[in-house]
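Message: Study each token:
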Amino acid sequence: MQWRSSSRGGGKLLHFDTIKTIDALHVTGLYVFALFLVVHVYMATIGPTAFAHIRGMITGYEERPEEEPGEAVPEAVATCEAKNTNP
């Protein structure tokens, strides 16, 4: 299937294969965008509550659990003890 343009420069041919290529690129772009959207919505909703990260995006403030002043991470303590250094 061919289409002829009525432009002044003469008839340009737009082959059906070109339309198939453009269609395939648009469909691929749609799937990439849909995947992008799904992944970002999922990543925004994993947290202490479903909307905790979204609330932080809107308000600009995210509440984090407070740690005790002398509390150390167990992996860091084990690593420091293995290296024989102070945390």
About this structure: The CA atoms of residues 58 and 74 lie 34 Å apart. The chain has one domain: 2-83. The chain has a mean pLDDT of 76. The radius of gyration is 28 Å.
